[in-house]
Amino acid sequence: MTAHQVLATVAVSDFAASSAWYARLFGRGPDDTPNASCAEWQIARRTRIQLLSRNELTEAPCHAGATSVGIMVEDLDEILHDLQDRHIDVPAPQLATHFVRFAPVCDPDGNTVTFVESATS
């Protein structure tokens, strides 16, 4: 399979609080707000993170806090420093293998956004 775009949807219980948290996480407000309970950030050329109130997810049972999103970054230490400046709690980076470092952060519902860096670059 070849995809031309990626959209990851994160279910949240308190849309206003989570929108504010993701705005701090990404360092800006959403790029698009299709409706009052949906916000989207374009984080790469063809990659978007969509924040959606769990009340809007009617197609399948969905629980806020059950989403995990991985974001590949160039400089993990710089990202974590920037997040701390935006009042996001960050852990110390972990080495998964000799080639990958990562650091997971949690939104107000416990959804995980993990920043991943190749340790060989």
From TrEMBL:
Matches recorded under SUPFAM superfamilies: Glyoxalase/Bleomycin resistance protein/Dihydroxybiphenyl dioxygenase
Keyword Oxidoreductase: yes
Domain VOC: start-end pairs: 2-118
InterPro entries: Glyas_Bleomycin-R_OHBP_Dase, VOC_core
Keywords: Dioxygenase, Oxidoreductase
GO molecular function: dioxygenase activity
Protein name: Glyoxalase/bleomycin resistance protein/dioxygenase
Organism expressing this protein natively: Rhodanobacter spathiphylli B39
